[in-house]
Design goal:
15 helices; 21% helix; elongated
């Protein structure tokens, strides 16, 4: 018991019928005296040494209700004995945990304030199958776990203890005895609240939040996401406006995003992480919102506020890996547990982290339930799953000989495939209206295909709702970074995306990854002087918003911030200060983003058939010498929108484009060169009439003026 190696402390401690009465044993290190209060009388316990106290209560045939009075130096405490309570976990919970199918795992494991046997307290439960013993330690034990050993519940690997009198706000960890007899003190893997880093302990918590987003939750799944407008503003909460709490963010972020017309925000990982420089992508508290900005209920308030403003909330989710901190998941109970036991399968060569063992049912359950948890408990509307490619391939970033093939000799991680399929199927079943996104950078077949539909590679689909179109992002950025005189040699980099545009359900990401670590901000990638850079920036956004697929833009890029994003100080909001001389340049770009979203949301042609080839037609995709791209988008009833981009710095007068014969005139609805956006104001103020002049394979055409470095949208007048 003192070594922390007892599997069944309840079999020794507490009250037990014996010949001649009932024996009571209490383990209270540092106590001076312990007395049992039973049937109105006090019975002192004998000090057996090393913190153990015991006594025989004679003439009793069964265990009566009793309390303890424990005296330390000068203070006497009235407490209930933790070892008089039956297990607080039910057989069904244990069965589901053993099967790896507990879809609400957070209700069984971790710390949970509750009333058990009529007594308020907290149940602690942790999965540690390799441990020789587990004890609860915390501020309520002065960080000495000797007096609170936990019991092992059968073959599940779960250890449990109900501690009376402990409630919300208590700070705790688990003292685990490893197989070799040494000790390690660990944060709770299932903690739903943590201390603020750099502190690492877990905190007992319960939610008292009352949601006010019933209308949003009722209608969020009314229309399939791939047939609805979806425009995403990506945010790193700690640096969006540094120093704000969740509740302060709730006063500013919804109003800002709503004003700009984005339909959703995507939050970079809000799960607890020790190192702020990881931006949340090296998670230690998978079930806890980071304490840097407030409590879990404070985070709920932020989500609720966004919903009430009509804005969906997506969240980055990181099931690919976890850091090696010795107080967290790494070798949690003394042996590889959450990570694979083979280093060739567990150590990530790029990030210095550990990869999950997706083949272990309990680990898979931990992650699947975690995905459900965020959607169910925090009303998250979608999960963007980070680094999917690193999960799918056994040889990801590994040299020959540093990885093991699967049972069929291939490089696919079959366990990870099964996990992703299970996660998607479970989340979509349990949380109607949500959507999952895959950041998958390869050509894996069927990322957004249903899990029961087998593809040519022999795998069922992964079941995601959408996939980040990394190919489009890399190719289009490579094109716009070229000087216009060289762009004709790279024309195909802008058109190639349409070769595979309907192979998956895509979102077009200009994310944090593209504006940091030497990659430069979006406007700074553009060639030319400041005017040309902004013009390129605006033209590119216009092209992006018209291209098939949904849109994602990282914070700061909506107003053409010139500096790379820094997690230390966030966006350069001072660029929008009217006292700054170049403020109109930045405000103009932000005004364009607002208008892009406004027109986009009101124009079904731009989103209703994003995943259907019938929703797109090239007008001209081979005008390389002109640096011009023109295409049509169609809604479900065939109404068109014409998008024309001129990525050359010259005005092109009387530029002829073939158009559908049925449309007699076209009117500009958006022009990125408009003066109010900071452009040269080469705009078409009057409708352009169609002429019976065949061009581009069509029987009718129009002549229009193309502004320099600009995108123009036109629809039937």
């Amino acid at each position: 018991m003192l070594a922390g190696e007892h599997h069944d402390p309840h079999g020794v401690l507490g009250a037990h019928p014996v010949r001649g009465g009932v024996v009571v044993r209490v383990l209270r290190p540092w106590a001076r005296e312990v007395t049992v209060l039973v049937k109105g009388r006090r019975v002192p316990l004998h000090d057996d040494g090393d913190g153990l106290f015991s006594a025989l209560l004679p003439l009793l045939r069964k265990v009566p209700p009793y309390e303890l009075r424990v005296r330390y130096d000068g203070d006497e405490l009235a407490v209930h004995d933790p070892y008089r309570f039956l297990p607080s976990l039910g057989e069904l919970d244990l069965h589901l945990i053993g099967e790896g199918r507990h879809e609400e795992l957070w209700t069984a494991l971790g710390s949970r304030p509750m009333t058990h046997g009529g007594v308020p307290g907290t149940r602690f439960a942790v999965w540690a199958p390799n441990a020789r013993g587990v004890r609860v330690t915390g501020d309520f034990t002065h960080w000495d776990g000797t007096g609170l050993p936990m019991r092992s519940l059968g073959s599940t690997g779960v250890w449990e203890l109900f501690v009376p009198g402990i409630g919300e706000g208590a700070v705790y960890k688990y003292d685990i005895t490893r197989p070799d007899g040494t000790h390690t003190v660990r944060a709770d893997p299932m903690a739903r609240r943590t201390e603020c880093p750099p502190n690492t302990a877990s905190i007992v918590t319960a939610s008292h939040y009352t949601w006010d987003d019933a209308e949003w939750m009722e209608r969020r799944g009314a229309r399939p996401h791939h047939e609805a407008p979806l425009s995403v503003y990506e945010v790193h909460l700690p640096s969006w406006r540094p120093g704000l709490t969740y509740r302060q963010l709730a006063e500013q972020l919804p109003a800002y995003v709503r004003d700009l017309g984005f339909t959703h925000v995507e939050l970079m990982p809000v799960t607890e992480h020790p190192f702020g420089g990881s931006w949340g992508y090296q998670v230690t508290g998978f079930y806890a919102p980071t304490a840097r900005m407030g409590t879990p209920d404070d985070f709920r308030f932020l989500v609720d506020s966004l919903h009430r403003a009509g804005i969906g909330v997506l969240m980055d989710w990181v099931p690919a890996h976890f850091p090696k901190d010795d107080w967290a998941l790494a070798e949690f109970d003394g042996r590889p547990l959450y990570e694979h036991e083979d280093p060739r399968r567990s150590h990530h060569p790029d990030w210095g982290t550990l990869e999950f063992d997706y083949g272990r049912k309990e680990v898979r359950n931990f992650l699947v339930a975690n995905a459900v948890y965020w959607c169910q408990e925090f009303h998250i509307d979608g999960l963007r799953v980070d680094a999917v490619a690193s999960m799918l391939y056994l040889d990801y970033s590994r040299e020959q000989g540093d990885w093991l093939p699967n049972e069929f000799g291939g490089r696919e991680n079959l366990d990870a495939v099964a996990f992703l399929q299970e996660m998607n199927a479970t989340v979509y079943r349990r949380c109607p209206g949500i959507i999952t996104f895959a950041e998958e950078s390869t050509a894996w077949d069927g990322v957004t295909r249903a899990t029961d539909q087998v593809g040519p590679g022999g795998f069922g689909g992964l079941g995601f709702g959408m996939k980040w179109n990394m190919g489009w992002m890399h190719d289009s950025l490579a094109y716009v970074q070229k000087e216009p005189v060289h762009r004709k040699y790279h024309h195909h980099e802008m058109t190639f995306s349409m070769v595979y545009a309907y192979s998956e359900n895509y979102i077009l990401p200009i994310s944090h990854d593209e504006v940091v670590h030497g990659k430069r901000a979006l406007v700074s990638k553009m060639p030319g002087d400041w005017w040309q850079q902004r013009a390129n920036h605006r033209a590119y956004l216009g092209y992006m918003w018209a291209h098939p697929g949904k849109q994602l833009l990282y914070m700061g890029q909506e107003f053409a911030q010139g500096a790379e994003w820094s997690a230390d100080h966030g966006p350069d909001w001072w660029l929008l200060d009217p006292a700054y001389g170049a403020e109109p340049d930045h405000r103009g770009v932000r005004d364009l983003v607002r208008d892009l979203n406004t027109v986009y949301t009101a124009t079904p042609s731009l989103w209703e058939r994003d995943t259907a080839p019938e929703g797109f037609e090239w007008v001209v995709g081979d005008a390389a010498e002109d640096n011009v791209f023109a295409f049509l988008r169609f809604d479900a009833i065939g109404s068109p929108l014409l998008a024309v981009s001129n990525f050359s710095p010259v005005v092109r007068h009387d530029y002829r484009l073939g158009v559908p014969e049925a449309v007699v005139a076209w009117a500009e609805v958006l022009n990125t060169d408009a003066g109010r956006y900071g452009g040269g104001d080469v705009v078409g103020r009057d409708p352009v009439k169609s002429e019976s002049v065949p061009h581009h394979g069509r029987s009718a055409s129009i002549r229009m003026t193309l502004p320099p470095l600009a995108t123009v949208w036109l629809r039937p007048a």
